[in-house]
Amino acid sequence: MDTTSVFPRSSGVLLHPTSLPGRYGMGDLGEWAFRFVELLASNYQHIWQVLPLGPTSYGDSPYQCLSSFAGNPLLISLDELVKLGWLNIEDVADVPNFPLNRIDYGWVIPYRFELLHRAYSKFAMLADQEAGAQFENWCAENRDWLDDFALFMALKNENGGRPWVEWPEGEALRHPAALGGAVERHRNALRELKWIQWVFFSQWTKVKHYAGEKAIRLVGDIPIFVAHDSADVWANRELFFLDASGRPTVVAGVPPDYFSATGQRWGNPLYRWDVMAQDGYRWWLSRIRATLALVDIIKIDHFRGFDAYWEVPASEPTAIHGRWVKAPGEDFFNVVENALGKLPIIVEDLGVITPTVEALRDGFHLPGMKVLQFAWGDYTGQEPFLPHNYSPNCVVYTGTHDNNTTRGWWIDEATPDMREHLRQYIDRMPTEINWELIRLGEASVGHTFITPIQDLLGLDGESRMNLPGRESGNWGYRCRESDFEESFWARLAHLTYIYGRSGLDDAGNQAQNEAESAL
Prior knowledge:
Strand content: 5-15%
Radius of gyration: 23 Å
């Protein structure tokens, strides 16, 4: 199958919006999001990859969201609310002295939510008829997930943020009388929670539209599993392996691997795939549609879980004592294609990959991932992550959000054998390891190349986005404003052009000349 129409040869950058610069302690959907789109476009990049955009909870992980359908309120641009008149200039005049290169979530979260509450109060008092109608219409269009999410959050706030299984039984197990009473009790809070979601989606839609105008395609994650403490599980208990009180009986994870000697016990509840199949995977189809409204290309995280997943008894403290359980991969993707057509999907096919996982991926012509940090140390030349072994239908990365930065990997993790292998492969000892891997990725036959922003910047391990298994200290990396002005962007543009990823024809010579003059 020819995949070039879905995945033309291209290059891009992985940067979650929280990592953008900005005044208010973390990146958001304001000025710097649009400037980043412009920066990508002016340097011949056509991909912006983000992590999941949902509302985060304990640990701040975008992979453990409170909803698969809702947006993260922390990403709302406060400056845009000022422009709309829902915040005053005075409201954002005295900004705390937030760190510039890290996110202090404990400081940022209450600050931003206080201003969102203030903005909603002004909207409720002063919004004109048009804005009010737009809000109400949006709520009606999204009621399938929005009503449950808003009620979930209102009850979670009422119960001091505790997981839903620790709420009073009526609300936890969704007894109709208890839910009816909660809706009456929290009527004002429900409207505010819905308004916050409307604002998020309104702002993200503007960013997405602007990216489209600049020929930038957005890649976004669908984690295969969802958080137990989420509106998804609370409102759909029948779809998961839970006991009578709502607690998981088995949870997801992965066995011991490159990242962890004890595996990773993620703790997500596992799907009752047989139940999901009975209504044609309706919940999953809704989730995919919702994600495609936000991004142009879906990356399915932990794709191998659609073939078989690692089931861990909920009582186990680690993921060592689990088992592989078969999942309905072929049936699932047939249903998805029949309902939604051929979709632009990238699959995260890392970890323990079997012939059946490869058959599922290749049978639906889905591009997998190649991570250059994983390529070194096997001198036989058979390692599938080595560039000469790639097929065109793949997406090449220097590293992912779970990897160390390339410079950090080289300093702290690469063994002498890995270093020598890479030296022989490129016929010289690397002096700028991040650019050596960027060049290998750009030059490869893989149709798409993506590098994390940290690797463009040549940052060490202090700037990695996530260390799997670490309970705190993740997801906090931020760019500096000066990172948008550095000459390495021209260097990336140059490599993108000479390896045929610029997407330019007549403008190609101009791109080459501009890139070379900036070097």
